[in-house]
Predict the 3D structure of the following.
Amino acid sequence: MKNKKFLSAIDLAKILNISKVAVYKKIKKGEIKATKVDGNYVINKKDLGIFKDKLTKKEKLEIDKAINKIMKEYGETLKMLSKCD
């Protein structure tokens, strides 16, 4: 699994400059695809295509940092989840 694949709902909220509650509502409505891992939502970067054109270089770097953090903290759990598919 590559290290730059996931980010948290909270990190996505920061990147999109919206509240974390707004991100959770979008997840609940199905507007943002996310998976719950250990009580936290993680979003696969490939599922963010609708936001891709709206991001600045700085925001893209922030996404990469957030993904690295998620992978460091939840990498093994995500690997186990990916084997369930």
